Amino acid sequence: MEMETLHYLLMKSHSVLNRRIVSEAGKVGLTSGQPKILEYLWRYGENNQKAIADYCEIEQATAGTILTGMEAAGLITRERREGNRRSLYVRLTEQGVSAAKRMEQIFRDQEELACIRMEREEIRQLRELLDKFCISLGCAEEANSHEA
């Protein structure tokens, strides 16, 4: 039997893992777009909407809609900075930090389940190979946009 294409395997893996993460996030009151934004803000701290959207691979307008919901839920605050009237800077509230910590555990648990049949060295190799794959696709330049 012939192995599936790389595109299909990446798409299928992402879809299944993402569905599981979104399902778990829903149990703690988060909508589908919120976990990745929480993760970004937890890892990198306060930043503007454009940098967040770029890192999360979503349109700025979509990020704005998600952020509005997160602000209403008390997970984030948005404010303008002196000298930069055009950009809103986003930061986690205490409630947002708590939600980000819960999501960090959900991400860890789901990754562990996804890798249950893999050895530690295989997981390390997979990360290394996916990193190279992303660099080949030009993801490195996009990922660096998280730096304000």
Question: What are the main properties of this structure?
Answer:
148 residues; mainly alpha; 66% helix; globular
What is the end-to-end distance?
48 Å
Mean pLDDT: 91
Q: Strand content of the residues, in percent?
A: 5-15%
Radius of gyration: 17 Å
The poorly predicted ranges are: none
TL;DR?
The protein is built from seven helices and three strands.
Plain-language structure description:
This protein is mainly alpha-helical and 148 residues long. The protein is built from 7 helices and 3 strands. A 3-stranded antiparallel beta sheet has the order 1-3-2. The longest helix is centred in the N-terminal third of the chain and has 22 residues, at 6-27.
Question: How are the elements arranged and paired?
Answer:
Layout: H1 6-27, H2 34-44, E1 47-48, H3 49-56, H4 60-72, E2 76-81, E3 84-92, H5 94-114, H6 120-137, H7 139-143
Antiparallel strand pairs: 1-3, 2-3
Helix pairs in contact: 1-5, 2-3, 2-5, 3-4
